[in-house]
Each structure stands twice: as C-alpha cells, then as structure tokens.
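Dear colleagues,

As part of the handover before I leave the project, I'm documenting each prediction I ran so the next person doesn't have to rerun anything. This entry is a single chain, and its sequence is reproduced below.
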Amino acid sequence: MKMNPLDWVVFVLLVIGGLNWGLVGLLKFNLVEKIFGAENVFGTIIYILVGLAALYYLVMTLMKIGKQQ
C-alpha cells in the first residue's frame, strides 16, 4: 500500500500517541509532558494533533471498508 505524506504524518502521530499512552499506563510516565512540560501549549497541540490523526485514520478506514462491500 502506497502512503501519501499525510498518511505518514498520521502514522507518526498515532505511534507517538500510542507509545505515550503505553508509558502512562505501564510506568505512569507522560513523555509528552516530560518533553514539553505540563500545561504547555506545545504539549496541548501534540495531543490535539494525535486526536485529529486518530479521527482521520478512523474515517479513512471506514471509507475503505465501505468500498469493499
């Protein structure tokens, strides 16, 4: 499957988000907060981008499923 640049950005953001949540769940360590600091606008932007990436991936996946049927 060929990925366009947006797909790559979404992939990277979802990996960052998944790894961060894994660290939070396993070790109670929030890497995004550690890098950008708690209550920092950059950390908030990362969280928003990860959420938007998840929505994009969900919509694209549902569209692909719909085309297969």
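The chain has a mean pLDDT of 93. Residues 4 and 29 are 32 Å apart (CA to CA).

All the best with the project,
I.
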